[in-house]
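Figure caption, in words: inputs first, then the predicted bound structure.
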Amino acid sequence: MPAEGMTELDREKLSQLIEAHADRPGALLPILQAVQAGFGHVADTFVPVIAERLNLSRAEVHGVLTFYHDFRRQPAGRRVLKLCRAEACQAMGAVDLLAQAEHRLATAMPGTRADGAVTLEPVYCLGLCSVAPAAMLDGRLVGRLDAGRLDALIDEVLA
Amino acid sequence: MTVTVYVPGDAAAVACDADAVARAIEAALAARGEDFVIIRNGSRGLHWLEPLVEVVTDTGRIAYGPVAVEDVADLFACGFLAGADHRLRVGRPEDHPFLAGQTRLTFARCGVIDPASLDAYRAHGGGRGLEKALTMTAADRIETVKNSGLRGLGGAGFPVGVKWETVARTEGPRKYVVCNADEGDSGTFADRMLMEGDPFCLIEGMAICGLTVGATQGYIYVRSEYPHAIAAMARAIEAARAGRWLGADLLSSGLAFDIELRVGAGAYVCGEETALLESIEGRRGQVRAKPPLPAHKGLFGMPTVINNVLSLAAVPFIFAEGPKSFRDFGVGRSRGTMPIQLAGNVKHGGLYETPFGLTLGELILIAGGTASGRPVRAVQVGGPLGAYFPPRLFDTPFDYEAFMAAGGLIGHGGITVFDDSVDMARMARFAFEFCAIESCGKCTPCRIGAVRGVETMDRLIAGDRPAEQRALIADLSETMKFGSLCALGGFTPFPVMSAITHFPEDFGADHPAAAAE
Ligand SMILES: Cc1cc2nc3c(=O)[nH]c(=O)nc-3n(C[C@H](O)[C@H](O)[C@H](O)COP(=O)(O)O)c2cc1C
Ligand code: SF4
Ligand code: FES
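Bound structure (FE2/S2 (inorganic) cluster present):
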């Protein structure tokens, strides 16, 4: 999205999101989080605007944006399905579930399905290791996942 | 009479449908025209029974679990509001052997009280530690923490009192208390449970720390994977401010202390204390070289205490009951209790707070063995940087020094159990892969070594000259151990080498399948 592609409305929204946090110490992370919550991703065109407001170089903002796994520079699919692939979930069969999800969604993890229905991502522990395997569909936590429950989640995503 | 029902709002319960169960119970109560209140408590820690619903009866709280939405009508029909018999009836939670066997100091209130209510916190003994601390001199407060023997529960086990003393003695225009709630280790969830089930306890611990070291501002850095903990902490901070437990004039003492919540952005390495400080300051979460110690030059260059959630949450008890009541528990140099987390392939997963000293085997018995019913083959203790233990070492007592001697670490107290279907070569490969994904990139042995480790393991798994690959892995592990700035690169060899040492048959040594090729 080129800078000219930003609408007046987007520009206004962006500056509001930035201003809400700009005066906090260490404002960059809260700003990137707010921008991502507001737009669904942090477009490259937002970077110079954020950098200028915080008196940082573009490279610094870009460096932070790319360091953290949470930030997206492209929009995600309509739903986001995160499957835990850390040790405790592996102990309960997570590896097979990942393969099942990749197969049924025809999407390699991490990735977004061709029709934009869903983004499939790994997550490294949701703190649900005692009710493993675990997943998160958008904001919703799911524990005690098995092949049947995963199929139901995928049905929901593809519905 | 008002009917009171508890339905946990803890993330583990919610992941097992507790929200829908709460709605179904609410609808049923409303339909019956009952005067009722539903309290979303934390979890008691018996996670295989979640959602564990409790009703208040004349004979105390009676629990039922695991409750599914489909069970709700039946529970009402059987008279569960009066504590009647039902196939899901657990009885009084405190009589359940899993709870009765514990020593709950830090988690005494978790799952019991309404975590949104400061009044409930006070009614269950909350606040006495802070009140006591306010009557003491700064020097006495430090002595109290030191005498308790409390060691950092985030992983490294550094004495908490010594750290506080250093910050108290360091001059600075401002000082900070930072709570490390990044809890990235697989197999751990105690920080999450405490923040969701008893958030005021953490606030109280941080306030005591602030008074002790002369800090007026605290930060809690919570990982973004914990939305429920973030919401519970935010709500509790607001309530604490309203009740003047935080703010410019703490409990009319004339002293100021406030807390700001910060949310991580998905980086395991940000649990490392200096990377965490970088992250709060708005930068990439890269590890800082030490010295300077955070105690001397920490957040924004100021003297800073950084402690784990569990370390800070242990403090109110220590002040309320005196350091001796804490120190009297435990073994050797590991004093007090450890909230142990039973995870992975276990029948009875959850939180088990107990004095240091139980053996690994005893803990696995408490966990009821595997969920799959198959034999236990390996147990990883202390998260992704912790060693894998074979049954032969299950007599190792849970204590910092004993685990070190056995070539492992207790870390943040997570125990992840695997049954005999586990392929340890895959787990070793995963350890390298995780390190490669999460490396902050500062040191070559970690950044590059982890990637080489994955490639080498791939060759080994493919059956390509396994003895050579094993030798390469051993070399690589030495390089990572000694050439890494922090424990991500430095400790990844623990899971890898322990897997090779204890399960050589999975690495092409003496393996019949490998010999046949
Ligand atoms: C890669 C890495 C990740 C860590 N993650 C955490 C964590 O999630 N939570 C934590 O409390 N400590 C973590 N630590 C340990 C911290 O660096 C530090 O020792 C701890 O916050 C000190 O608090 P304590 O003394 O109360 O344990 C981590 C260390 C490393 C090297
Ligand atoms: S060991 Fe790895 S994570 Fe730790 S400082 Fe070095 S590169 Fe960063
Ligand atoms: S390992 Fe999957 S939730 Fe912790």
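Chain B has four domains: 3-100, 118-327, 330-419, 424-515.
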